[in-house]
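Long-time lurker, first post. I've been practising inverse folding by hand and with some scripts of my own, and I keep getting stuck on stretches where the structure tokens seem ambiguous. Below is the full token string for one chain I'm working on. Before anyone asks, I'm not after the true native sequence, just a reasonable design that respects the backbone. If someone could post their per-position residues I'd love to compare against what I wrote down in my notebook.
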């Protein structure tokens, strides 16, 4: 490779963007890399960060037959033209729940580490997470309990302290009606 550069076989021109420039140029180079995560953490106040990201939970319908799976989508969007980073309570960046029961599981099957994590959003980035609830609650490692008819609230939010108060949480209510059982 060294021979090519020293042989003069390459046409070099500082003004032509499609040819290599001379090495050791005195002109300053453009900043090629910025640690956006560090900048977001150090420069942005929490209130700006919280307002920048919106979270929505949606279902295709509001009524479902008993025994039918309920699909829902969690959509998170950064509305700012710069990246946003949240420090989360654990490596799990966001959680969902049904009537306040995390991941519809009464039995604790996994205990995430107590170490903090990060959840990053690029400029104007939208993240979508499709999920489904089987109309059951897990009561032990191998046992599930079906729910009866009625209204249930599916919620999702970032895994941060006071997510509801900070506007980093959303929920939708669905109704389970008589159907196939």
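-- Answer (accepted) --
I ran through it position by position. Result:
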């Amino acid at each position: 490779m060294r021979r090519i550069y020293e042989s003069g076989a390459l046409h070099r021109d500082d003004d032509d963007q499609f040819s290599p420039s001379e090495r050791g140029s005195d002109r300053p180079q453009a900043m090629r890399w910025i640690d956006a995560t560090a900048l977001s953490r150090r420069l942005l106040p929490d209130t700006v960060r919280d307002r920048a990201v919106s979270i929505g939970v949606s279902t295709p319908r509001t009524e479902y037959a008993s025994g039918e799976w309920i699909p829902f989508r969690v959509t998170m969007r950064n509305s700012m033209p710069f990246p946003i980073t949240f420090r989360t309570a654990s490596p799990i960046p966001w959680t969902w729940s049904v009537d306040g029961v995390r991941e519809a599981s009464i039995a604790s099957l996994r205990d995430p580490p107590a170490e903090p994590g990060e959840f990053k959003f690029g400029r104007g980035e939208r993240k979508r997470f499709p999920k489904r609830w089987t109309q059951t609650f897990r009561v032990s490692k191998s046992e599930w309990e079906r729910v009866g008819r009625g209204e249930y609230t599916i919620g999702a939010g970032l895994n941060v302290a006071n997510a509801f108060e900070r506007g980093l949480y959303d929920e939708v209510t669905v109704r389970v009606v008589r159907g196939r059982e």
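A couple of notes from the structure itself: The longest helix spans residues 36-43. The domain at 36-177 is CATH 2.60.40.10 (Immunoglobulin-like). Happy to go over any region you disagree with.
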